[in-house]
Amino acid sequence: GAVVSQHPSRVICKSGTSVKIECRSLDFQATTMFWYRQFPKQSLMLMATSNEGSKATYEQGVEKDKFLINHASLTLSTLTVTSAHPEDSSFYICSAKDLGTEAFFGQGTRLTVV
Amino acid sequence: AQTVTQSQPEMSVQEAETVTLSCTYDTSENNYYLFWYKQPPSRQMILVIRQEAYKQQNATENRFSVNFQKAAKSFSLKISDSQLGDTAMYFCAFMIEYGNKLVFGAGTILRVKS
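ok -> structure tokens follow
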């Protein structure tokens, strides 16, 4: 299957700082990318959907000013957690799909805010 | 809105035995796709099997097969000859035809015991 690379896999940041997570589709053009948040032993919670070159669509309850999503090219989307707080600590997962039906997932990023 | 229900939070099975994970969904759509994803301890999401709603034949991938009952809106996953590497969290997911978003169930933690 196609490969989606997510970086970094782990990051620790201080409260009040911003952290950026990258999601790259390595061997296909991702017309749509998705960002999820996952708490331990729980399901994936969709945060936002982004299409290349346009603004992301955020799910209800997700603060768009806190979780900035950029999808500037067909192979790269970034999630920036701004002014991070300990409650933002979580596992973040991206996925990408082209015009087909299958979504491909990145390895995930464990964010710890101290 | 579509919903996906997995009623078994945790299950265990002896190595080499067969186990079935349940999934029901609710939708008013006629054409859609159903998926089972596996999330092992590494937390990488892996597609196990997919089913197109317009296909009557149940999908099969090696030791993994589904029982798709469209009228009952049921989509169970059968794992035959369970292996230790099958230990993971399993998510049932739904996507409408020409859609983008995956709707996930709550997940089932499966433990394969030696």
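Chain A has a mean pLDDT of 94.
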